[in-house]
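Before a colleague's protein record goes any further, I have to sign it off. Alongside the sequence sits a line of tokens, each denoting a local backbone shape. I want your independent view on whether this chain really folds as the tokens say. Where you disagree with what is written, explain briefly why. This is what I was given:
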Amino acid sequence: MHFSSKQLVPLMTLDGQELEEACGYPIMAVRRGDFYRLLRDTFVARGGVFSPGCAIESLRMEGGQVEVTLTGKPGFLTIDQVFAADGIGSTFREQLLPNTHRQYAGYVAWRGMVPERDLPSDIAAVYDDSIVYYVYANSHILLYPIPGVDGAV
């Protein structure tokens, strides 16, 4: 694959307010890893117990608390809050909102990744601390750096 800086020419630069006016809604971008760490660390700092890999078999609201049964564990836990990040096929969401179903949005999201080391330096510089965002009829394109596990790009 060949990249050329001549292929990436910004047509305009928009601040947050201009972007909201152009798109008709506010747009905020946060790297997933940063967002995940913020939620996890805040939850734990407030006394929450972080238990990755636990599968929720069932849950039930009972007097302002939640009774949770975990797959493969006897009995249930009675807790104040549940924070579940189990993705698009969320069993948590299905149990909490049984009448809510996924619905095709009318477009397909494509994702491709190129290792930064494979990009020429002039192309990599375009993405340094920025997001390239293009809006067109019924869709949009985002180009951005994805950090590694340690947060480095």
Notes: The longest strand covers residues 56-62. The two ends are 21 Å apart (CA to CA). The chain is about 25% helix and 15% strand.
